[in-house]
Amino acid sequence: MEKADTIVSIRDLDKTYKNGFSALKRVSLDIRRGEILALLGPNGAGKTTMIGIVTGLLNATGGTVTVDGMDIVRDARKIRPRIGLVPQELYTDAFETVWATVSFSRGLFGKPANPAHIEKVLRDLSLWDKRNNKLLSLSGGMKRRVLIAKALSHEPAILFLDEPTAGVDVELRHDMWRMVRRLRENGVTIILTTHYIEEAEDMADRIAVINHGEIVLVEEKATLMRQLGKKELHVQLSMPLMFIPPELAEFQLSLADEGKTLVYTYDTRQEQGGSGGIALFLKRLGQSQIEFSDLKSKESSLEEIFVNLVKEPA
Predict the structure, then answer these.
(1) Any coiled-coil ranges, and where (predicted)?
(2) Separation CA 162–CA 174 (nearest Å)
(3) CA triplet 85, 213, 210: central angle to 5 degrees?
(4) Cα separation values, 121 from 25, 58, 163, 216, 254, Å
(5) Which residue, among 204, 195, 255, has the nearest Cα to 225 in the 3D structure?
(6) Residue 248 exposed, middle or buried by CB count within 10 Å (0-12, 13-18, 19+)
(7) Rounded to the nearest 5°, which phi and psi values hold at 170?
(8) What pLDDT score was predicted for residue 312?
(9) Which domains does the chain have, with CATH numbers?
């Protein structure tokens, strides 16, 4: 049963290719209306396969996908105009102009001509000055902008961005994320895959991690950072230590910088609602007569959390 705020509901989705490779294994995921969901996973994890099924480019082996309560197979004609896709591949109609290809893309989805909307999209993506240029003449970064413009041409309610800024210039990445924020403000639901995890950390409301065709975790970004993040306290010592004293064995400690820095690693949950581990650790440090000159704290990034989630067991 879908929740009221769910726009895409994926249930027990399987995809096995003819060569026997199982790309998706009983994947279930609810995507909320109006959110930005970052779908993270290593290469070959199943991200693009899942997007391909939801957008109608691939057929599933098993399971169901509904969009606004409509089945993607049975109600494909109704659903497809609601979805936009920016694919990884840079395939474009080389001899068409920017204006023609973006306008034609809108018509493909049965939408009436709307030059004002096409102009707005091209201006937002800094493509207006190139509107009469043939795609053949554009740089890779400009072609990527055209793919984004095509995906937005028919005003979709759901936008899939599959590695949209991979290998493009910093200016496009900034343009892209500014536009993503505006789209979300206007109610568009956005699902993005990215190799730039700092972008997911900055943009996403929720994080889903997929590995070996299975959803490993789905969580609010803030909760994920809080629950799975680690913090480190770097204690700069007045005198170097050769080893960690036995009376500090209860803490997760390591020595760095040739014994000049004592690193205390602790779970963020230890510190919620009180002084927790740090206060006790500093008290024990004083009792051990270890003097220090400086304290610095460091939090896990989303990238570090992601690496730990998908790391193969040794």
Answers:
(1) none
(2) 16
(3) 70
(4) 37, 28, 20, 36, 53
(5) 204
(6) middle
(7) -60, -35
(8) 64
(9) 6-225 (3.40.50.300), 229-310 (3.30.70)
